[in-house]
Design goal:
The chain has eleven helices and five strands; from the N terminus they run ααβααααααββααββα. Strands 1, 2, 3, 4 and 5 form a five-stranded antiparallel beta sheet that branches.
Length: 337
């Protein structure tokens, strides 16, 4: 085996010029790729999500949990999926960018020349910019451009590393992390900050709106029952005070009717009040607080592909291919000799 390896080494030394011919294209390609690569500005935004059930409502949550009444805390994976959803991305893209006060979608189109790329198959896409969010549904070019921008932000399943924004969570610490990398620092900052703001708004406002409406309706109904009970109780007291025990049959019947109504309203009031307290608890327990732990700040440091590293990679790959060629050729010569 040692002699065989020695023969192959001598063969490679003998045909070192052939080896160099394989190395040169690889070194040239990787060197050019690193030299012409654009500088990327990466940033991270870390945040945590706390619900009221983890603090002052903790004991009550456990007590109600034993009766089958759960809290409204969102699943960590639900938050991550919402972060990557088209609904959130749409709101982010049509927010005013800090780059030039235009829509972030337009900034991404011009920065990555998406209109020129699409113009090869759709000439009308050249120079296209969104004037409003409603433009998406107006014509075919708007829809095609919007899909291209979304794909550039989220990337495709086959190339997740090309995404401009990524979301993940550390299961041990419970800290969420948004990562972004683009060729403009303002795009990176906008993607991170806008995404956090939209996710925060979605879970704090949108999801709780229906619960809040239901709770408020129960509260109004409870107050209405309480008002009727108070009014009828006052009327019943007036009857008792007026006749001082000497009540006619007519007034006696009226008194009995009031007593029956008050009893029925009291039962309804108790049930409504109980439902209101439960709805109020669920509403408050569902409220979540999104707290930034670490936010990106300007100026952001840019990162570019290392020319030396890529030259080394090209040299190694070229050497492997060249050595393989020389060894296979030697084996073939020996086989036909």
């Amino acid at each position: 085996l040692i002699l065989l390896v020695r023969d192959y080494v001598f063969e490679c030394i003998k045909y070192y010029k052939t080896l160099i011919l394989f190395i040169i294209p690889f070194v040239t390609y990787f060197g050019y790729s690193a030299y012409t690569s654009e500088m990327k500005f990466g940033g991270k935004l870390k945040f945590m999500v706390e619900s009221q059930s983890s603090s002052s409502y903790g004991m009550l949550s456990g007590l109600l949990g034993s009766f089958g009444v759960g809290g409204g805390e969102s699943s960590p994976f639900k938050i991550i999926e919402v972060t990557k959803s088209e609904r959130i991305v749409r709101q982010v893209l049509f927010s005013q960018s800090s780059c030039n006060k235009e829509f972030l979608a337009n900034v991404i189109i011009s920065t990555y020349a998406l209109d020129k790329l699409l113009a090869e198959n759709h000439p009308n896409a050249l120079g296209f910019r969104f004037s409003s969010e409603d433009n998406i549904d107006n014509n075919l070019i708007s829809q095609i451009m919007y899909k291209a921008v979304v794909q550039r932000v989220l990337s495709t399943p086959l190339k997740p590393e090309d995404a401009l924004i990524k979301a993940a969570m550390d299961l041990e610490s419970g800290i969420y992390k948004l990562e972004s990398s683009s060729i403009k620092s303002c795009i990176t900052l906008d993607l991170l900050n806008f995404t956090f703001d939209e996710v925060k708004y979605f879970f704090k406002e949108k999801i709780l709106s229906e619960q809040e409406v239901a709770r408020d309706l129960l509260g109004e109904k409870r107050d209405s029952f309480q008002y009727l009970i108070t009014s009828m109780s006052n009327e019943l007291a007036r009857i008792d005070d007026s006749y001082r025990g000497l009540v006619s049959n007519k007034e006696k019947m009226k008194r009995q009717q009031l007593s029956i109504k008050i009893q029925g309203l009291s039962s309804a009031y108790i049930e409504t009040a109980k439902n209101y307290e439960m709805a109020d608890y669920n509403y408050k327990n569902s409220r979540q607080f999104f707290l930034k732990v670490d936010a990106p700040l300007e100026p952001m440091g840019g990162v570019k592909k290392s020319l030396i590293l890529y030259l080394i990679i090209g040299g190694v790959l070229g050497s492997i291919v060249g050595i393989g060629f020389i060894v296979i050729r030697k084996i073939y010569k020996e086989a036909i000799a």
